[in-house]
C-alpha cells in the first residue's frame, strides 16, 4: 500500500492514487489487493462507462410494465408514485457511493452488512442478493425467449430458446471485468431505447393499440385511460411493487462503484442515469397508456400490432441479452470475490483463478436456467422475489448505511441537516419495510390465483410465451 504524505487527502484521491500510483509504488486496492499488468484490472470503469452499466442495470423491459401500473393507479397517482420511488432509490444509490468512499474495502452489499451487523448481516444480505440476482437472470433468460418467439413466430420450442439464451449470456458474462463488459451495456441501452420508441411512436401515429384492435371498434377507437384509478389494495400494492422492481438495480451499484477508476465521479454518473431513466419511464409509460388505455399489451411492445411487435422485439433482443449478461456478471463476481478475496489468485491468471471464475458463472447460469425453465408460475414467482428481495436490497440497507456512518457523530454535534436526514433515512426504513411486506402479500395472492387458473403452463414448456 503506498504511503500518503498528505494525511488530509480525500478517500477518493487515495483510491485514485492506489490505482495509478507513482512508479516506485505498488498498485493496491482494498478489495482486490495488488493490481498488476499480468492480471485483470478490475478498477477500469470511467464515469461514462459507469453511466452505461447503471442504465443497463435498471433499463430493460421493466419499462414496459409502467403502462400497466398507470392503468391500475391512474396517470396522476401513478406518476406521483413513480417519482417517489425514483427519489428514494436515487438517494439509496447515492448512499452506496458515499459508503464506498468511507469504507474502501466494501465490494458488495454483503460487505456492508458485515460492517453494520456482523456475520449475520453478511450472510443474510449475501444470500439474499445472490438469490435476487439469480431470479433476475432467470427473468432475463425468459424475456429473451419471449423476444425470440415473437421475432420467429414461435420458430421452435421455447425451452430451446431459453437454453440458447443461457449459453449466449454465459459466454459474455464470463468476461472478467466491468470495464471490458461495458460495451454490452451501451449496445443494450441503445437497443431497448430504440425498441420502446418504435412502439411508442407507432401507437401515437395509429392513435390506438393497433389497426387490428381498432377494426374491432369499427375504427371508432376511444382510449379508456384514467387520470385517477380506483384499484383494490392488492392491485395498488402490486403496481407500486412493479415500480420498485423497475428501479431495483440498486444492489448492482456496489460493484460499479468498486470498479470505477475514480469513485469521486460516481455521483455524476448516478444522477445522469436516474434522470434519464425517470424521464423515459414517464414519457413512454404515459404515451402508451394514453393511447391504448386498458388495452395496452403486456409487455407493451406488442401494443402497436403484430408486425411492429416483431420489429420492436427484433431491435430489443440485444438489450434483453445485455440485461441478462450484466446481472449474471454481478452475481458471479460477488461469489468469485468472496471465494478468492485475500488471495493472490483474485488478480492473477492462475489456474485456480480461471476455474473459480468459470465455476461461479456456470453455477449461476445453470441455477437461473433451471428456475426460468422449471417453474410453471415463474412470472408470479419473480414478482414475489422482486417484492420481497428487490425492496429489501434497495431501501432498508441504504437507510441503515447512512445511519451507521452519521448517527453517532450527529448525536454528539446535532444540527438541523443531520436531524432532517436522519428522519428521511428512518422513513426509508419504514416505507421500505411496508412495501416489502405488503408487496409480498399481493404477490402471494396473485400466485394463489394463478395456481387456481387453468393456464396449462408446465416445466420446460414448448408453448409460445410471446402472446400478450
TrEMBL record:
It comes from the Eukaryota. It holds the Pfam family Aa_trans. InterPro entries: AA_transpt_TM. GO terms for molecular function: L-amino acid transmembrane transporter activity. The chain crosses the membrane at residues 45-66, 72-96, 124-146, 152-173, 185-205, 236-258, 270-291, 311-336, 357-378, 384-404, 416-441. PANTHER family: AMINO ACID TRANSPORTER, AMINO ACID TRANSPORTER (EUROFUNG). Belongs to the amino acid/polyamine transporter 2 family. This is Amino acid transporter transmembrane domain-containing protein. It comes from Penicillium steckii.
Amino acid at each position: 500500500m503506498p504511503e500518503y504524505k498528505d494525511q488530509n487527502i480525500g478517500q477518493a484521491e487515495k483510491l485514485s492514487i492506489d490505482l495509478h500510483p507513482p512508479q516506485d509504488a505498488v498498485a493496491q486496492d482494498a478489495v482486490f489487493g495488488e493490481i498488476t499488468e499480468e492480471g485483470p484490472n478490475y478498477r477500469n470503469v470511467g464515469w461514462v462507462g459507469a453511466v452505461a452499466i447503471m442504465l443497463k442495470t435498471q433499463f430493460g423491459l421493466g419499462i414496459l410494465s409502467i403502462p400497466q401500473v398507470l392503468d391500475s393507479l391512474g396517470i396522476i397517482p401513478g406518476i406521483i408514485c413513480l417519482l417517489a420511488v425514483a427519489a428514494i432509490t436515487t438517494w439509496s444509490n447515492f448512499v452506496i457511493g458515499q459508503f464506498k468512499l468511507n469504507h474502501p474495502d466494501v465490494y458488495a452489499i454483503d460487505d456492508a452488512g458485515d460492517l453494520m451487523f456482523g456475520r449475520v448481516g453478511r450472510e443474510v444480505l449475501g444470500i439474499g442478493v445472490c438469490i435476487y440476482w439469480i431470479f433476475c437472470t432467470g427473468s432475463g433468460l425468459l424475456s429473451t425467449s419471449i423476444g425470440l418467439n415473437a421475432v420467429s413466430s414461435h420458430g421452435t420450442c421455447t425451452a430451446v430458446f431459453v437454453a440458447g439464451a443461457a449459453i449466449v449470456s454465459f459466454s459474455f458474462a464470463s468476461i472478467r471485468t466491468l470495464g471490458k463488459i461495458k460495451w454490452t451495456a451501451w449496445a443494450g441501452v441503445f437497443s431497448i431505447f430504440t425498441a420502446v420508441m418504435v412502439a411508442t411512436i407507432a401507437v401515437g401515429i395509429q392513435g390506438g393499440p393497433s389497426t387490428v384492435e381498432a377494426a374491432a371498434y369499427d375504427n371508432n377507437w376511444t382510449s379508456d385511460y384514467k387520470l385517477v384509478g380506483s384499484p383494490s389494495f392488492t392491485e395498488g400494492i402490486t403496481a407500486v411493487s412493479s415500480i420498485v422492481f423497475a428501479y431495483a438495480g440498486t444492489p448492482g451499484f456496489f460493484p460499479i462503484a468498486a470498479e470505477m477508476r475514480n469513485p469521486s465521479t460516481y455521483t455524476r454518473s448516478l444522477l445522469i442515469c436516474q434522470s434519464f431513466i425517470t424521464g423515459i419511464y414517464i414519457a413512454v409509460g404515459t404515451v402508451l397508456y394514453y393511447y391504448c388505455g386498458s388495452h395496452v399489451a403486456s409487455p407493451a411492445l406488442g401494443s402497436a400490432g403484430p408486425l411492429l411487435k416483431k420489429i420492436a422485439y427484433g431491435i430489443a433482443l440485444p438489450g434483453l441479452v445485455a440485461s441478462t449478461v450484466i446481472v449474471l456478471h454481478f452475481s458471479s463476481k460477488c461469489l468469485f470475490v468472496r471465494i478468492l478475496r485475500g488471495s493472490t489468485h483474485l488478480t492473477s491468471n492462475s489456474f485456480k483463478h480461471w476455474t473459480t471464475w468459470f465455476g461461479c458463472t456456470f453455477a449461476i447460469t445453470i441455477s437461473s436456467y433451471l428456475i426460468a425453465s422449471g417453474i410453471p408460475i415463474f412470472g408470479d414467482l419473480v414478482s414475489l422475489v422482486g417484492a420481497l428481495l428487490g425492496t429489501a436490497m434497495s431501501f432498508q440497507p441504504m437507510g441503515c448505511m447512512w445511519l451507521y456512518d452519521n448517527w453517532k457523530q450527529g448525536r454528539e454535534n446535532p444540527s438541523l441537516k443531520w436531524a432532517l436526514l436522519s428522519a428521511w433515512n428512518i422513513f426509508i426504513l419504514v416505507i421500505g419495510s411496508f412495501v416489502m411486506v405488503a408487496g409480498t402479500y399481493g404477490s402471494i395472492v396473485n400466485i394463489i390465483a394463478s395456481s387456481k387458473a387453468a393456464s396449462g403452463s408446465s416445466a420446460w414448456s414448448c408453448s409460445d410465451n410471446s402472446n400478450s
